[in-house]
Amino acid sequence: MNNHHEALVKSQFGGQATAYLQSNVHAQGADLRRLSEWLSEDGEATVLDVGCGAGHASFTAATQVAQVTAYDLSEGMLEVVAEEAEKRGLHNITCAQGPAEILPFGDNSFDVVISRYSAHHWHDMQAALMEIRRVLKPGGRFIMMDIASPGKAILDVWLQTIEMLRDPSHIRNYSQGEWLAMVNNRGMVVDKLVGDRLHLEFSSWVARMKTPDNIIEAIRYLQEKVSHEVREHFAIAADGSFTSDTIMFQAR
C-alpha cells in the first residue's frame, strides 16, 4: 500500500469516527436491511468487514453470524467500534487494524467478507480483491456496498471531482460494469446485484469530512455550473443536497 495514501486516509478519518457512528446515512439504509437478509442463514459463519469504518455493517452482521472481525486502517474508527459493540452487547466482534491490500489473516479464514462505503478509498483495488479472495474459504462470499459511478463520462467526471474535493483520500467510485469485470478477474462470480439511490444532505455531507469553506465554495460552484443532464441525474437541490447511485452485490 502507498504510505502517503495510508497516512491521508488516517488523517481524514481518525478524528471523524464519532461523526460516522452518528451519521444517519451510515447508521441506516436499505443496504443494511438487505445485508441482514443475505446473512440470515449464516448462523455459524465467520465474517470479515474490510474498511469497517464506524462499524454499522459489522453490527448488522454480528446479529446474524457467529463471529465478526471489524478491520480498518483507522485506530480511531476501531476504538469507536469496540466501544459501541460493548454498549450493544455484541460480544462476537473483534477488531484488527490495517489496509485492505494487506489482510493479516491466513488463507481460507472466513466464510464471508463484507465491505460498506470503503472500497472507493482502496489504493490498489486488484491487490485488495486478491487478498479478499485469498482469505475466503472455498465457496465463500464477498458482499460489497458502495457509492457507484453512473458510468457515463459526463456524470462520472462530476461525481469523482466533487468526491475528491470533499475528501482528498477518495480514489474512485466504480461503475457496475467495472465492478463485475474486476471481481470476475479475481475468480469470483456475482450472483446478486442491486442498484439503488442514496440521498446526501449537503451540510452534513461536508461536515463529516470537516471540508474547508473554500472547498465547499468550489463544490457549490461546480454544482451551479453543471449541465442540465448532470443536475437531473444527481437531483442537485438548491441547498447543494444531491442523490448518488449505489451498488450492492454478492460474489462467490
Automatic annotation (TrEMBL):
Keywords: Methyltransferase, Transferase
Record Gene3D superfamilies: Vaccinia Virus protein VP39 (3.40.50.150)
GO biological processes: methylation
Chain segments annotated as transmembrane: none
All residue ranges annotated as the Methyltransferase type domain in the record: 48-144
Listed GO MF terms: S-adenosylmethionine-dependent methyltransferase activity
Full protein name: SAM-dependent methyltransferase
Lineage: Bacteria, Pseudomonadati, Pseudomonadota, Gammaproteobacteria, Enterobacterales
Enzymatic class: transferase
Pfam families: Methyltransf_11
Enzyme Commission code: 2.1.1.-
